[in-house]
Specification:
Shape: globular
Largest sheet: none
Structural class: mainly alpha
Distance between the termini: 39 Å
Radius of gyration: 20 Å
Number of helices: 13
Oligomer: single chain
Helix content: over 70%
Number of strands: 0
Length: 299
């Protein structure tokens, strides 16, 4: 027995790991170029010549999102052959990439329907880019949890994954609308989307925290919903009911705990009117921490 075999690393396993890594690198590279192709610009020109920070943040969010999805595609178990492993990794990876791009498209057209996200990012709007990156990462966290929940590589698996993905996008839209209504009530009917378009970075950071928190809490559903590949309606209803319950519970918990942790601080005035980025970052930490703790307790 060789030194590597003592640690469970056989030649077959090392080849499979190399296949997975090679496919992951190819997909990450593809995602970087897709960022430019999607908005019809040269990604190298935007990143290295124009020094477009907003485009860089948006691209970083897309690449990180795909990396998160790929961790869900890697099961840790070797397939029956190298070809099957390559097909499985490629299929899940490409499906995840498509869902990330679809999620961003839906987020642009439905959640951020009053602004032209791509045009603003090309112009260098960092606030919109932060929200865009966070939306991609939140979508990826959700896709990963669904990939870990689903089993096998069949058409039923992809239908189940897409069903949960559709519910997650609905939750992101509902979350955005809820945050918009709260912002309007506290700021004489002002538009949150318009504030982001004008470069309100603190507001973008805070909203990003809520999206990431929702994504982490969404992960808890995979521990309660039993995977049944042919039960399309049951899967859809299960994810919908659990997601609504988690979104409401998370919102109430975050509101309560922020009042305790950030007592005697007027968050509306500091973040929304004075653009306090530091305090917005603290809000993100609280939101995500509560979501992670809540998900861990339910696991």
């Amino acid at each position: 027995m060789t030194f590597l075999e003592n640690y469970g690393l056989t030649l077959d396993l090392m080849i499979i790991l190399a296949i997975d890594l090679a496919i992951a690198v190819l997909l990450l590279t593809l995602m970087r170029y897709l960022q430019g192709w999607t908005v019809k610009v040269n990604s190298r020109h935007e990143l290295a010549e124009n020094d477009n920070f907003a485009f860089g943040i948006s691209t970083a969010g897309a690449v990180m999102a795909l990396g998160i999805v790929l961790t869900g595609a890697i099961t840790g178990e070797a397939a029956e052959s190298y070809l099957v492993e390559a097909i499985g990794m490629s299929a899940y990876g490409l499906f995840g990439l498509i869902l990330i791009k679809l999620g961003r498209f839906l987020h642009d057209k439905i959640a951020l329907n009053n602004i032209d996200k791509n045009a603003l990012i090309i112009k260098g709007n960092v606030s919109v880019a932060i929200v865009d990156a966070a939306a991609a990462i939140a979508t990826a966290i959700i896709i990963r949890s669904v990939l870990m929940w689903a089993e096998d590589l069949t058409i039923y698996t992809f239908i189940a994954i897409f069903s949960a993905f559709a519910i997650s996008q609905l939750m992101l839209v509902l979350l955005t609308r809820g945050r918009e209504n709260r912002y309007a009530k506290r700021n004489q009917g002002a538009s949150m989307q318009e504030a982001l378009a004008q470069g309100h970075t603190a507001l973008a950071i805070r909203h990003s925290g809520y999206m990431l928190a929702m994504a982490f809490s969404f992960n808890a559903a995979s521990h309660f919903i039993i995977f049944n590949p042919e039960a399309y309606i049951a899967n859809l209803i299960g994810w919908l009911v659990f997601s609504v319950v988690m979104l409401l519970s998370l919102s109430l918990l975050i509101t309560l705990i922020k009042k305790l942790v950030l007592a005697n601080i007027n968050l509306c005035e500091e973040v929304e009117q004075q653009h306090n980025i530091g305090l917005a970052a603290v809000e993100v930490a609280i939101s995500v921490s509560i979501a992670i703790i809540l998900a861990a307790l339910m696991a």
